[in-house]
Amino acid sequence: MTAPPRGGPLTIVRLANFVTPVSGGLRTALRHLGAGYRAAGHRPVLIVPGERRTEEDTEQGLVITLPGPVLPASGGYRLLADRRAVAAELTRLGPDRLEVSDRTTLRWTGAWARRHGVRSVMVSHESASGVLRTWGLPGPLAAAAADRLNAATARGYDSVLCTTDWAAAEFRRIGVPNLVRAPLGVDLAAMRPLPTAVRALERARYAAPGDVLLVLCSRLSAEKRPERAVEALARLRARGLPAVLVVAGTGPLRSRLAARAARLRLPVRFLGHLNGRAELAALLGSADVVLAPGPVETFGLAALEALACGTPVAVSRSSALPGLIGPAGIAAADTGAGFAAAVTELLRRPEPARRAAARAQAERYGWSAAVAAFLAAHGARTADATGRSGDERARRGA
User: Fold this and answer.
1) pLDDT tens string 78-136
2) How many helices (H) and strands (E) does the chain have?
């Protein structure tokens, strides 16, 4: 396979399903990566499904929306289901690199890339065995099915990219030789601790003085286990802790969760999807603890954003997050009682110490390092810390 020289600009076409205007972590990651690719002098193009075809030049490069059907019971997710349309778009764009973020319905694109001499990377954003378990498949059957899926994925692409060792473990288990690791990141400028006075004003929007403010920032779908946040709130209030819960995000389980909270007379406020990053940062920064109950999270961007805002997190011990949060949070047992216990333990820590530890941990995960690692997986040039590409640095040095 021939490829453009490493130092030259590349057309990097990215394909992704499960991205909507109200989706969370994947949409955010795609935006930051695309902007980083562009800053390094490359031409990033993102293709996602939508209601109709659109094409827009953005900060993350060209974004193309192709018509795709809604996936039933998904809360509005669409799929790039028309292979001919996707293949025609790829042929028109003539990519040097292909980056794919769905190893189920888009796995056929690896064969397209091979036929056209295009180097390809499949990004694994989830644990296949973990997702299958959340769908009710017993552990041994889920592992066997995941092994078959992962082996086929590895054969179909030049590289399989995982963002954590936890996510990579199921590929290592079957001896995948073309596995690479690259972290994601967090926007440390947009997500930062609030000044004390501002934090008090923001808290007043959601909690009374003396209340403990808990926040869940998550898609409300089965694999995220959002019901555990409601269960934890019920446990804490039964013990006499005046806790309230604010939920940012939407999804197919919202009505069921709201009905359950109302039935139990729990103080839960559903905000829906927050469009503004500043609004999200203010919410995360005003919380006492952020909950991340999803057991199959491979990176957990919302949890890292909470840490960047100076707020400790209670995370599922079954996910990748315990390895990311370090001393800035607690890995909870996967029950409402487990998360209630984690919240109680975090609140015992002096507030200044727990907030400082949260920010310090988040500062280990900047987007510049993530972009550089993803570009390295593509065999592409990177930008330096100032945002200048290798070619620009060479010209300035000359």
Assistant:
1) 899 999 999 999 999 999 999 999 888 899 999 999 999 999 999 987 777 777 777 77
2) 16, 14
What pTM does this model have? 0.83
Domain 11-185+366-392 has CATH 3.40.50.10330: no
Q: C-alpha angle with apex 111: 76 to 114, nearest 5 degrees?
A: 130
Structural domain boundaries of the chain?
A: 11-185+366-392, 196-362
The CATH class for the domain spanning 196-362 reads alpha beta
List, in order, residues 6 or more apart from 351 with CB less than 8 Å away: none
- E strands along the chain, which residues? 11-16, 43-50, 54-58, 61-67, 97-101, 119-124, 159-162, 179-181, 212-217, 243-248, 268-272, 289-292, 313-316, 329-332
Closest CA to 12 of 84, 82, 61: 61
pLDDT tens, residue by residue, 348-365: 999 999 999 999 999 999
146 strand-pairing partners: none
